[in-house]
Design a protein that fits this description.
- There is one protein chain.
- The chain folds into two domains: 10-124, Gcn5-related N-acetyltransferase (GNAT) (Aminopeptidase); 134-296, Aminopeptidase (3-Layer(aba) Sandwich), CATH 3.40.630.
- With 304 residues, it is α+β, with helices and mostly antiparallel strands.
- It is built from nine helices and eleven strands.
- It has helices at residues 10-24, 28-36, 82-101, 115-123, 163-174, 181-184, 189-198, 249-263, 278-286; strands at 45-50, 53-63, 67-72, 105-110, 126-138, 155-158, 207-212, 215-224, 232-240, 268-274, 290-300.
- The longest helix is centred in the N-terminal third of the chain and has 20 residues, at 82-101.
Length: 304
């Protein structure tokens, strides 16, 4: 097994990309070029070769906030030991990641119908924890224009450039939340905050807080999407503290997020929501969000 791949070994890198093409949504050439544009893309990789043929591979994309996104090869249905082989390379890659990023988390996404991926992921110490519902709303929808005015019991403004205050706010919004509690219980809140900060220049008008009686009670984060879809922005986070839920604050934050993104030229607003979060999904649907796909989210379970 080659762990990790050498930075100059292009043939092995291409072999890995061929194995991972189905997971990344890109063909092997596009995936290889995309990886070459990243900093140290081969640091958390593992490739298993038998008889000069690559049979299993895994790669973890380093993300801000001590997080990694796992791409792994699909088990070969013609081999009874294929899931175990995929599990070996996943464990090898996650070991490399945690050696440098502990405490951190490794995440993966699969299709709900992909039973082939399940065996390799489970053998690699990964476990499914949520079904994510991806939704999008065209910002020209009339629902964004016919909305209840912001209530007088709270105000909205740009988030403070104060990490301690934002961590405390995030922590409180996580209480009794049904949006990926398995992830928030595993990941340090400061790492989650750094993950958001890592994809933005910092708290700006894309970070909106709700304040009531001098206390921060809600947070929304929007940013330009990193997808290939032009005009798309992402609602990266929307959360309200328990004492302020069902008071219209979430709705106010969502309307303000749409106002900001429309002013920036956005055509669509995109988000991902835990399928168990029915209240949030009803709120989003009332603003014209419709489901585009579902993905199963996985997290590594190995203790570090």
């Amino acid at each position: 097994m080659h762990v990790p791949l050498e930075s100059q070994d292009a043939p092995q890198q291409m072999s890995l990309c061929r194995l991972l093409a189905h997971t990344s949504g890109k063909d092997s050439e596009r995936l290889f070029r995309a990886l070459q544009e990243r900093v140290d893309p081969w640091d958390y990789t593992a490739l298993l070769i038998e008889d000069d043929r690559a049979v299993a591979g895994a790669l973890i994309l380093d993300r801000p906030g001590r997080a990694g996104t796992l791409l792994s090869s699909k088990p070969d249905r013609g081999r009874s030991d294929s899931s175990a082989l995929v599990g070996q390379v996943i464990r090898a890659a996650t070991d490399l990641f945690h050696a440098k990023k502990s405490p951190g988390v490794v995440l993966a996404m699969t299709s709900p119908d992909s039973n082939e991926d399940r065996g390799g992921l489970e053998a690699g110490g990964m476990t499914p924890f949520a079904t994510m519902v991806f939704m999008v709303s065209p910002l020209r929808a009339t629902a964004w224009d016919v909305t209840t005015p912001i209530g007088s019991n709270h105000s909205l403004h740009a988030a403070p450039n104060d990490r301690h205050a934002l961590v405390a706010l995030l922590d409180e919004t996580y209480i009794d939340s049904v949006d990926c509690p398995e992830l928030t219980s595993r990941r340090r809140t400061i790492d989650t905050l750094c993950g958001h900060l890592g994809t933005l220049a910092g708290p700006s008008n894309g970070w909106i807080v709700a304040e009531r009686e001098g206390k921060l009670v809600g947070l929304a984060i929007v940013q330009k999407s990193q997808s290939d879809s032009p005009g798309q922005w992402d609602l990266s986070y929307l959360g309200v503290v328990p004492s302020a839920r069902k008071s219209g604050i979430g709705r106010s934050l969502l309307v303000e997020a749409a106002r900001i993104t429309r002013a920036a030229g956005a055509k669509r607003l995109h988000l991902a929501c835990d399928s168990r979060n029915t209240n949030a999904r009803k709120l989003y649907a009332s603003f014209g969000f419709h489901e585009t796909e579902r993905r199963v989210a996985w997290i590594d379970t190995m203790q570090r």
